[in-house]
């Protein structure tokens, strides 16, 4: 093994049930998606191999702090709360939350309509925080988004709160014909790559990201996953 290269491996943590940002290929289980392509391209730009580690969403920030991973690449929204624990790169995608309900649901059209309802969310996410802010709502949390959507489609929850592009992608796949998005996208949530607090890695990632934006590689990856230029 090449020791010098080994020490340069960039270990990226992800929770891979968040298509089209991170998910696993059906047969090979390879990690794929917008974030996966982008972090690999960033690593390449930095001259470092990228190793992807699969972990729970709520385990990602602790893994940064314990040194088990170098960077979070997991559709993580840049929030003031998280900024107390980690440092974020420049934003690389602008997202926002949306509400998903079953097709047969006609009474839920906004956050207000979720009062007293049962909401299914992924643990540790901004969607979970949003659900917890709804008066009288019962919030059910799960480790994976597969479970989050199953709860809705098994009629054990009235709605899901999740990042809109992930909900929209689900509606073109397993959720097709079963579920729909209702209402407007909530506040804009920029995604960033999280690193250890004040680590110089943030600057290195920003530099690589800037280069990928300049040389067209970022646009290429964006277009591959979202079908249009950013
Ligand atoms: N963007 C949301 C958050 O940061 C959800 C991320 C995710 O589930 N991977 O909390």
Could you spell the SSE succession in H and E letters?
A: HEEEHEHEHEEEHEHEHEEEHH
Number of helices: 9
> How far apart, in Å, are the first and last alpha carbons?
39 Å
Structural class: alpha/beta
User: For the residues shown, what is the average pLDDT?
Assistant: 95
Number of strands: 13
Low-confidence residue ranges: none
Question: What share of the residues lie within helices?
Answer: 25-40%
Shape: globular
Q: What is Rg?
A: 18 Å
Q: What small molecules accompany the polymer chains?
A: glutamine
- Biggest sheet details: 6 strands, mixed
Strand content: 15-25%
Brief overview, please?
The protein is an alpha/beta fold. It is 34% helix and 24% strand. Strands 7, 8, 9, 10, 11 and 12 form a 6-stranded mixed β-sheet that branches. The protein has a 3-stranded parallel β-sheet with strand order 4-1-5, sandwiched between helices.
Description:
By secondary structure, the protein is an alpha/beta fold. The chain is 34% helix and 24% strand. It contains 9 helices and 13 strands. Strands 7, 8, 9, 10, 11 and 12 form a 6-stranded mixed beta sheet that branches. Strands 4-1-5 form a 3-stranded parallel beta sheet, sandwiched between helices. Strands 2-3 form a two-stranded antiparallel ribbon. Strand 8 (118-122), helix 5 (126-132) and strand 9 (138-142) form a beta-alpha-beta unit. Bound molecules: glutamine (GLN).
Helix/strand layout:
Layout: H1 3-7, E1 10-14, E2 23-24, E3 31-32, H2 34-46, E4 50-54, H3 60-66, E5 71-72, H4 80-83, E6 86-88, E7 93-102, E8 118-122, H5 126-132, E9 138-142, H6 145-153, E10 159-163, H7 164-172, E11 179-182, E12 188-191, E13 194-196, H8 201-214, H9 217-226
Parallel strand pairs: 1-4, 1-5, 8-9, 8-10
Antiparallel strand pairs: 2-3, 6-13, 7-10, 7-11, 7-12
């Amino acid at each position: 093994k090449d020791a010098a290269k080994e020490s340069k491996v960039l270990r990226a943590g992800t929770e891979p049930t968040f298509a089209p940002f991170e998910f696993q290929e059906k047969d090979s289980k390879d990690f794929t998606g917008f974030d996966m392509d982008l972090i690999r391209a960033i690593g390449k730009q930095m001259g470092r191999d990228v190793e992807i580690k699969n972990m729970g969403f709520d385990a990602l920030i602790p893994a940064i702090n314990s040194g088990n991973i170098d960077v979070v690449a997991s559709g993580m929204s840049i929030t003031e709360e998280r900024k107390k624990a980690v440092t974020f790169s420049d934003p690389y995608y602008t997202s926002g939350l949306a509400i998903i309900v079953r097709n047969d649901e006609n009474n839920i059209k906004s956050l207000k309509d979720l009062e007293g309802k049962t909401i299914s969310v992924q643990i540790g996410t901004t969607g979970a925080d949003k659900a917890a802010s709804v008066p009288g709502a019962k919030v059910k949390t799960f480790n994976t988004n597969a479970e989050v959507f199953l709860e809705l489609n098994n009629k054990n929850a009235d709605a899901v709160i999740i990042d809109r592009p992930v909900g929209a992608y689900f509606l073109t796949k397993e959720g097709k014909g079963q579920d729909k998005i209702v209402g407007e996208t909530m506040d804009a949530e920029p995604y960033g790559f999280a690193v250890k607090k004040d680590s110089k890695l943030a600057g290195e990632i920003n530099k690589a990201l800037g280069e990928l934006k300049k040389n067209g590689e970022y646009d290429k990856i964006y277009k591959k996953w979202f079908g249009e230029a950013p």
